[in-house]
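ok so for the tutorial part 2 we go from a plain amino acid sequence to predicted structure tokens. step 1 is just haveing the sequence, like this:
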Amino acid sequence: MGTMSLTKESNRNVDTKSLGIIAGEGKLPSLVAQSAKARGFSVVGLALSEDARDLIEPHADKTFLIAPGQLGRNLGLFKKEGCGCAVFIGKVPKLNLLRQLHKLDWTAIRELSKLPNFNDDTIQNHMGDLMEAMGVQVLTQREFLSHLFPEIGSMTERQLSAEEYADIEFGMGVAREIARLDIGQTVVVRNRMVVAIEAIEGTDETIKRAVKLARGPVVVCKVSKPNQDQRFDVPTVGMSTLRSMLKEDVAEGGAEGSILVVEAKETLVVDREEMIAFAEKHGIAIVSAPLPEKSK
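step 2 — the prediction. this is what the tokens look like for a chain of 296 residues:
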């Protein structure tokens, strides 16, 4: 995609070579910043926490610490810095957002009052529409990180059994349904029984809960939402996902026999080589799989 094609006719003074990165937790924002710099963008980092700011600052031309609820200030920063496009990237814990509801500014209160509900998709799509209306194109994470979305196949050496493949198909089918209902995007199963379903606590805490309950190998399935807006909330796994699969007493076998399954071509896999080495050491298989066909 050529950057000059992003210019809005209604906002000719906006520099399309200036990219605003709304940065959550983790290293993905810094990876986007590095990719954008390599393509000739100047980068403005808008960090949602001090940790996020520290990680993106070395790779950005300018960095600002922002609060999600200060919507008027945040939109004003985009306009002031002349950002022609933006990327939302990084983990934003939902519980942290709930704890900051008292910090909403008037712009946030006004815009939230227009929404029919406060589901992730509803809020994110409205934010995207607001930014588009002011001449800022919201780009997908894939625009800068396409190499992190795996194709179908196994990333580890262990050969899976027919029973394990049956668990994968079952778990991916259940995960598809909870994602459709906008409950969560991760399901943990064992012997074709649901052990845990992700809700507001997030993927890692869901896995930890399942490991305690199962007391044995588990199959963790993570998928995207149907018709997911690729500008926001792309499903992501990394080292913290694998560490969550370990038993509390690693000496008793770690996660031997467990499987991490991600939806092929739709899930960001961070630190793939490190993840594979860790998985091989602890007996975890990592598989990139398609969603199963719906039964008629």
